[in-house]
Every structure is written in structure tokens, then in C-alpha cells.
Amino acid sequence: MIDEQMAVFIGSGLRLAVPIIFAATGEMLSERAGVLNLSLDGMMLMSAFTAALASWATGSPLIGVAAGVLVATAVAALQAVLSVTLRANQLVVGIGFNILALGSTTFLYREIFGPLSRDPIPGFAQLNLPWLAHIPVIGPALANQTGLAYVSILMVVVTWLILKYTSFGLAVRAVGEDPRAADKAGISVAKTRYLGVLYAGILAGLGGAFMSVADSNTFTENMTKGAGYLAITAVIFGGWNPWYTLAACLLFGFATALQFLVPALQLDVPVALLLLLPYLLALVAIAGFVGKSRQPSALTIPFERGG
Amino acid sequence: MAVLELSGLTKRFGAFTALDDISLQIERGEVHCLLGENGAGKSTLCNLVFGVHRPDAGTMTLGGEPFHPRGPAEALQRGVVMVHQHFSLVPNMSVAENLMLGRASAVLKPQDIIVRMEQLAAEYGLEIDPEARIEDLSVGERQRVEIIKCLLGDPQLLVLDEPTAVLQPDEIDALLAICRQVALRGKSVILVTHKLGEISRVADRTTVLRQGRIIETVAMEGADIRSLVRSMVGRDVQSAGSVLAAAVDIEGKTPAKPSGAAGPVSPGEAVLEISDLVYRDPHGVPRLDGLSLTVGTGEIVGIAGVEGNGQTELGLILAGLAAPSAGAIVVGGAQVGGCTPQEITDAGVGIVPEDRHAVACIKELSVAENLYLGAIGKFSRFGLLDKSARRKAAEAMMRDFDVRASSPDVSMASLSGGNQQKAVLARELSLDPLVFLLAAQPTRGLDVGAIEAVYNRIRAARDDGLGVLLISSELEELMAVSDRIAVIYRGKLVGELAAGSFSREAIGAMMSGHAHV
Amino acid sequence: MVMKNPKLARVAQGARLELVPLQVLVPVVSTIIALGIGLLIIAATGASVIEAIEAFWDGMAGSDFNIGASINRAISLALVGLGFIFASRANLTNVGGEGQIAMGGMFATAAALHGAGGLPLGLAFIVPLAVGTLAGAIWGGLAGVLKAARGTNEVISTLLLSFIALPLVYWSVESFHLLRKPISDVSSLPESAEIPDSTKLPLLFPDNGSPLHIGLLIAAIAVVVVWLVLRHSSLGLRLRAVGLNAMASRRAGMRTSFYVILAMTVSGGLGGLGGAIMILGQQFYLTSDFSSGYGFDGLVVGLLSRGSAVGVVIGALLFGFLRSGSINMEISAHVPSAVVLICQGLIVIVIAGSAILTNRKVTR
């Protein structure tokens, strides 16, 4: 009985972590380049809705994911134009996009799905990898995931490789630390930041699409419930490092999953405290009380070439 | 054959014309110096060539082909490289990573860079550890990294913007030697400086800029240094006296004592007593290492030294912006080491800080607001500001100190550097009580007229009985204004000279740590 | 007095002259464009635009009751917006209005339910208001302390503090030993009991059925005080100096940490007051999502105002009426109120994006 609950807990913790892993990994790269996308939540929500809509319309969850990523990337492109080219306040723009995303998805959902909202949406099946299932305790939970969940871990590896071993990654780090120096070394600050934001958009799109077509097979109003903010929090808590960010996402995923486990185990821990735990941890981390988490020097600061 | 040819280049910033109709040719294999005062347009010219800015009019050709770089990337691609006044290295990355930045290859190849670094080390004697992080390197080493970065791609044209300001004398020698090496290998060098001593040692030809225009271009063989100075400042050196010598730093020239500073002044009782001052930076590196110094009433004590030997830290500590790790500072009998800026001000200390924009004024605020920045409460009743009373008081102060602005209500940013500095001096010299003034690099970035005004103010303050500590990296300035010069090296004073016994050679030797008097 | 460069002075003045209308023009034009897009969207759904507008107008200002309700909404938004511009005078961006409202509302509810009800002389509602203000002030001040002591970016900390505050409210209305009302046979929703009548804010026009309460007077006083402090007081100048250049301000004798903490404390306190007024003036009991959206709306109001207290009033009224209108539009004309969210999002994005036009600096 306890084993079974444990498996459910691990499974749901992982499922809850996956969209945050996607979004946080992309956001981490974008922030390393100096752009903070508060609009991450909006990108995810737009993608979740678009993926649900496209999957429902075509019957193919794959097309759904593609459409979701496309829309999230479009939002990211707008965010990039505003925060890089127009040098707008990145945070304010991000909040604006989140309000817009909430408004437009809620509106379209009611207009399009209104009467059909109980219909399930075609989604991905779980892969059930037998070789993983044999691992004790965590095996079944690991094996019973959709393909997208494995892609999220792959993206962490890819992002880590990009940052460490490619010229683009070096440019990203330089642009986020000292854009003036990078500019004078012949790097296009604007282009690097655009690519960073678009990368965040693509991954946030994957994360959002995962929510609707891989995890729940439905769309609900405001279904991200602040997952984008949680992802940004994970980046902070993870100290802008891909692996620590991954660990933070898993921690947050399991912390959220605890709220289902705690009542089941009849423990007397207020669920609210579990909900605020990730944010509290991040606050403690950003205040510098834990480890050495140092944000990129040029984070949120627009670059303007001067004399 | 000309590598770079400029014709009719003009660059404006708003209503201000920084460069006006510049035409110039840089030959292959020459070291070409650009000489001019601050604000003459030297840096702007470099920035046009390097693509940081784009000209409003005129054309450039590079190797005979049209050259209109839209950014540094394009300039680099065409073989134009630049070492900037402010280094452009990413501080928390390694030397190798900085060198790989902006190189065309999708995947990083640190091994290739290390091999190339070894070649350059053999060719020019430029050695440095590829794994070292930039933030751990000294200023001289960082500049070496900049130069290596420039030479990696085998450039046609190397532009150096005021590269020697931050270097010690032996480092300057090494740098000038590298410039000649580079020219010998058929590349061209543009060297920006306002120090004639360097020009006569390294340049093939020199172009003099003044107020955005080219005054003349001369071959250095057999050139008359004095006539270059005249072109640079637009006045005769003789008439301008020590001020000019200080501004241009003519090597070997001993300035005549201006009347204001004539004769050794007998200092009165001590107003400032620093004993065994120690300051360690956040990394634990000692920046001040047992510094002791006394300044009496009615004397100007100069601190000479190559930048980065603890002057900045001394200034910050005296201003109350950094706390000493050990040692005592006494002003007029009161202990002020580690006190707040307000307590230090109350003890009668006026501060003209080294970094005017960061510490002395707030450029977005009005002149009046800046003049009373430390006394905001003086013009307020029940917490509300009496702006007309403040304006009146500010107008009076501006008149007294010759601060030129159309009104006390214009922003500080709209004033010239000289008028900003006069405003800062006005504020600090109007403090009451006032027994001691720190003037750190008080003429940096000012034009000749303003420099003279600043010197006169400082001398007048001394004559009124103030003790003055003058920190400067311009040796001629110190020799012209000080009654006594102490030399700082690696965080402590290594020697002292009384008025009448100032000698460039002696001070220079002490500054580089070679001789102890 | 001779200006060194008369041309430069003229350029500077010219830029200022055209700046003023642009600062007004941009918000007005963006609002009009956004509302236009909103109407197009309504038309696209096939709903009757006329009917929607009628319902919208009716909800905003169709009756004394609706006008009162709209203004009551605007009061809290204005207080949050004032808090935003107060902090931004010191160059601090307080995006944590939502959390400050939540803390203010929660503690005001606690004070009203536990003790304040029996107090005489209006203290019954003044004390909960003060407690709520204090709670918001602490919540905002916490971000100020982190900024001053640890250099923590206040945008990130205020945002995180909001996400911490919301579960705390949820916790308080979930737990019987905190604020949750005892389960009765009628309802067992997770919410607090209704506050005593004595703690409710007195109505301004009790006879004509308008819910407009004395929060209006409180907000009006706050507007005047904030305007005076920011524009005409030595404190305002000090805040501005510290925000523009902390180092130079320190050298001039100002305790910069104190002003950073003060700015965030006052900013949070205004948000907390806004939250307390929401509970004591119109909602009367605490629910877990009572603050939903008000924080970001208030932030947008502060942003739209470009630092002007009068701008905050206009923006708050605009958003207060928009909200009321959109709710009625959904009920009577069956147009989802999310349309208004779309408009709001567009307004924020367009105004933030056009800052490059209005913030143009005169560079040498």
C-alpha cells in the first residue's frame, strides 16, 4: 500500500516537474544572455491552449505540440523585439504578456470549447519502457511517462552542452555578463539575446504543450497556475546552472506532489505551506543565504551601444 | 601605400559636433599617433574606424576598398582591431574564453587558442596563463590579454586608445616596444595619447586634433615638440605656464613655479593625521598597507603614484565610502576612520572625489539640487522644499565660483565637465566648518581653462589655511601645485619630496618601486 | 549667466517641451487602441456590439450602486498604484502589490474578527485598517531590507513574496484555528466569517443605496500626501537622489539603506491599506483569492501614470470602471470578461514598448 502510494507520488512529482524543467531550462539560457522573460507563464499558457486546440482539431498530439511551440515562439519573438530592440522594461512587458495570454486563452476557450469542454483531447500515450520499469521503487514511475518527459531531460543536456562547448554558448554567457565587452569582441548582442529569448520560447512552448496534450489531455482556464513563475523561481534557486536548475525543478515538482500525498498519508501538514515552499526557498537563495547564487550581471538591463 | 584612408568624416552627437571634416591617411607599417586634449575627438575617431559609431558624413576606405563598418563585428572581419580605454574583457571568464569570444567556429576549440597564444608569446613576448580568470589579473596583464586578442586574427590595423594611462613606467616601455614590433611586421598602428613623451619615442607620424578638427599631421623625424603642443592647445606654451605642461606631460621639462605656489609654505598644525592605514579589498588583497601621512594647515600635499597603487582606496576611505581594515585617521583632533560620510563632513572635511559622475554629483538632478545635495534639509520647512530660496542661494554660489549654466534649474548633465567640477568645488569649499580638502584627480577630463580655475581654487583654499591633499596621476600637475609630494607604491608611501627639490626622475623612480629615498 | 553651449540648452528645453504631451498621448492612444481591439473581438464573436457596450456602460455607471461599486474598486487600485510610484521614485520596482494586498486584507480581517469590533469612536474600523497597512508595510519593507542588506533585486523578491503571501491567505481561510469560519449547515466554504458591522467602513451616502464608502476620502488624502511628498518635499528629493545615484547620495550624507527600506515599506503599506479597504469596505469576509488580479491591475495603474499621482487617479478610475463594466457585460451580454483582460494586457505591452519614445534622453 505504501509502495503504491510512493509510486504514485513519484510519478506525479515527475509529471509536475516536466513542464517546469522545459520552461526553466530555456529561461535559464535566456537569462544567461541577460533577458528575463516574466512572460514565460504566458508563453506556456498560450502553448497549452494552442496545442490542445490543434490536437483536438487534427487528432494528432504531435501537430498539437508543434502548433503550441509555434505560438509560444511567436510570443517570445514579440518579447524579444520589445525587450531587446525597443529596450522596454522586461518585467513590465512580461506581466503584460501574461495578462494578455490569460485573457485570450480564457476568451478563446469559452468561445471555441465552451459546449465541448468535457471532450478529452487526443494526447500522447505513455511509453512504458520495460527496461526502466525494473528499477526498484522509482522504476515504474520513470517508465510510465510520455516521450515528451524524456525530451525534457534531453533538453537539459543539450542546453548544458550549448553553454559549455559552443561559441554560441560562450557568446550567451558574455552577453549576459558584460554586453559591452561582447559587442567589442564582435558579437551581436541583439542577435544573441534574440536567440536566447526564442530558445526560451520554444522550450516554454514544449512545457505548455506537455501540460495539455501529454499530462492531462484537456485544457482548463489558467491551467499553468503560475508554472512559468515557478520555472523562473527554479532558475534563481538553481543559481543559473542547468543541473542545479533541473534539481530545483524536480524539488518543486515533488513539493507540489506532496500536497496529494500528505492527505493520503493523513499527515497534519498544511498544504498551503507546501505551495509556498518553492518560493520561500528561492527567496532564501536569491537573498544569498544559501550557496553562491550570483545572477548574470546584465540581467534585465537593455544594451545600448555607447562611446 | 595607405591602409586606411579617411576623407571628410563628420560625427555629431545631438547639437555637439565631435568630429568635423576629418581627412587622414594611415600608411602600411607605420605607428601613427593621434594627439589632442580631452574632448578633442580622438576617441570618437577611433570609434568610427572600429564601427562603434557611424559617421554622419564622409567616407573611409580600407586597403583601397570602401569601408563603412556597421559594428565592431564588421571592422574585425576586415582586419581592424582595437584596444579600448576601458578594457572589454568579460571579468568572470578565463583568458582563453575571452580570446575565443567572437571567433567563427560553432564548437569551441580551446586547444587552437592555446597554440596560437604560444606563437604570439614567442613572437612578441606576450605571455599569459590561458586558464587565469580576468578578474584575478592585474591591469597590465589585462591589457596584455587585450593586445593578444587583437593580434590573434593577424590584423591589418591596430588601434590603441589611451593605452598607457593605467600602466607603470616599465609596462609602458614594453607596450611601446610591442607597437614598434607590430609595425615592423607590416601592420599599422594608431596610438591615441595626450602624452608627448610617448609620441617622440614611438611615432612615425603624428596628427594633432583640436575641437574635432585636424590641426596638422607631421612626420616625427626632426619635428618640433613645442609646435605640436601649440597646435594641440591652440595657445603658446610659455604663456599658459605650468598648466599646459601638466596637461600634456612633456618629458623632462621642469615647470616654472607659478606665482601662487611660490616658495615653501610653512605648514601650521596638523589637520589630517593618517597612521598605519590598512585596507583589504573584499578578496582580502591589501590595497593600503600601513600608510602614514600628515597634512598641516595651509599646505597642499600631493600624492604621486601610478594608478592602482591604493590612491582610489585612500580617497574612498577619506570620503567615508569604505571602512579601513586597520589604522587611524584623525581630522582636527577627531577620529574619522570608518565614520559615515555625514560624520566626516561634520568634522570639516571637503571631498572632491576621483569619479565625479559616480560619487560627486547626480547628473539627472538640477545644478541647484546638486549644490545642496548634502544640505537638502536647509531649504525645507515642515518637510516641504522652499525651491525659490534654494534657487537664490544656488545662483549666488554659481556666481562666486564661476559655474556657467543658463539657470540653476538645468540638469547637471547639461553642463560641461569643467563647470560640473566647479560646482562640486563650490559645494565642498562652502562647507562649514571646513579644515581639510581632499582633491582626487581634480582635473581629469577637463579642458585647459577649467584646469586653471581648479588649480586657482585649490591654491586659494590653501591660502585660507585649509590643509589640502591632492591625489593625481599627472606628475606635472602635482609638481605645479603641491607644496610637498609623497609617493605611493603598493599601498604605502615610499618617499617624500619638499618643494624646491621636486625632480621627475626621482619621483618616477619611486613610483615604479625601483628606488627608495 | 552664460550657458557654455546655448544650442545644447535649447535642445534640452525643446525635448522637454515635446515630452509632456507624449507622456500623456502614449497612454491615451494605447488605451483607445486596446479598447478598439476589444470591440473588434466582441464583434468577431457575433455578439451585438451595441448590446455589449450598453451592458458595459450599465455595469460601469448605470446606477448609483454601479458607480459606487466602480469607484470602490478604483480606490484599492489607486492605493496600490500610489505605492508603485512611491517606490519607483527611489528607482525601485515594486511588483508585489498582490502579496501586499493579500497580507493587508488578511490581517485586517483578523483584527476585525478578533477584538476590533467592540472599539468605540470609529476605532473599530480604523484599527483593522492600521493593522492591514502595517502588514503590507512589513511585507514590502522585507523586500527593502533584502535589497539594502543583501543587494537582492526587489523585482524578484517582491514577486516571490507575493507567491508566498497567497498560500498564506489560503492557509488562513483553510484552517479552523486561524480565520476559517466554523462549518455551519448552510455553507462550509473555506472562507472567514463576516466581519462585525462596526468594523465595516461607513458609507458616504447611506441613503441612496450607493456602496461608496469613506475609503474614497482615505484614498484622496493618500493621493495628496503622496503627491506632496514626491514632488515637493525634502524626503521626495532624497528618495529620488538615492534612486538615481546611491553612491553620490551616500557621500552627501544620506543613509541610502534607510531610504530604500522606507520607500519599500511605504509602498507596501499603501498596498496593504488597499487590501484592508477591500475587505472592510466591500467584501466583508476573507476568501483565498480575494486579491486576485488587483495587484497586477494596481501595478499597471502605477505604470500608466508615469510617476504622477494624478495619473494614478485617472488610471485607477479607468480600470475600476473597466472591471465593473466587464463583469456586467459577461452577465447581461454574455461576452466573456476576458476581453477586458486582453485589452489590459495590450495596454501594458504597448505602453512599455513605447517607453523608448517617451524616455528619450538628450545625449551629448
TrEMBL record, chain A:
Major location category of this protein: membrane
Pfam families on file: BPD_transp_2
Cross-referenced InterPro entries: ABC_transp_permease
Annotated transmembrane regions: 6-26, 63-84, 91-109, 147-163, 194-214, 243-262, 269-290
Subcellular location: Cell membrane
Membrane topology according to the record: Multi-pass membrane protein
Alphabetically ordered keywords of this record: Cell membrane, Membrane, Transmembrane, Transmembrane helix
Any one annotated GO CC term: plasma membrane
GO molecular function: transmembrane transporter activity
This protein's name: Nucleoside ABC transporter membrane protein
UniProtKB/TrEMBL annotation, chain B:
Residue span(s) of domain ABC transporter: 4-236, 272-515
Presence of the UniProt keyword Transcription in the record: no
Matching InterPro entries: AAA+_ATPase (IPR003593), ABC_carbohydrate_import_ATPase (IPR050107), ABC_transporter-like_ATP-bd (IPR003439), ABC_transporter-like_CS (IPR017871), P-loop_NTPase (IPR027417)
GO MF entries: ATP binding; ATP hydrolysis activity
Keywords of this entry: ATP-binding, Nucleotide-binding
UniProt cross-references to Pfam families, sorted A to Z: ABC_tran (PF00005)
PANTHER family attached to this UniProt entry: CARBOHYDRATE TRANSPORT ATP-BINDING PROTEIN MG119-RELATED (PTHR43790), GUANOSINE IMPORT ATP-BINDING PROTEIN NUPO (PTHR43790:SF4)
Sequence similarity: Belongs to the ABC transporter superfamily.
Record's function text: Involved in beta-(1-->2)glucan export. Transmembrane domains (TMD) form a pore in the inner membrane and the ATP-binding domain (NBD) is responsible for energy generation.
Name this protein carries in UniProt: Nucleoside ABC transporter ATP-binding protein
Organism the protein comes from: Bradyrhizobium macuxiense
TrEMBL record, chain C:
Pfam families per UniProt: BPD_transp_2 (PF02653)
Location of this chain's protein in the cell: Cell membrane
Keywords linked to the UniProt accession: Cell membrane, Membrane, Transmembrane, Transmembrane helix
Domain of life: Bacteria
Membrane topology: Multi-pass membrane protein
GO CC term (a single one): plasma membrane
Stretches that traverse the bilayer: 20-47, 67-87, 99-117, 123-143, 155-173, 212-230, 257-280, 300-322, 334-357
GO MF: transmembrane transporter activity
Protein name: Nucleoside ABC transporter membrane protein
Lineage: Bacteria, Pseudomonadati, Pseudomonadota, Alphaproteobacteria, Hyphomicrobiales
